[in-house]
Amino acid sequence: AHEVGHYLGLFHTTETNQRSFDPLPDTQNCANVRNFPEGCPDGNNLMFPLAGADNSQLTEDQVSVVLANPLTKD
Length: 74
Description:
The protein is an all-alpha fold. It is built from two helices and no strands. The radius of gyration is 12 Å and the shape is elongated.
């Protein structure tokens, strides 16, 4: 599902370089993703860069990006 998110136009919420973040205003990010990923507010987001047990949520803006992609149209 994460890779499909990329295909449909989504970015990682936080890049592991800790300098690049998702441009959407309602997507949280984490300044310490490499050293303390379990404390990241975006850790449960589908587009979080590290796999986890609960990487299943999308924000409203992320859903809008997916729904705006031509591949999701009938």
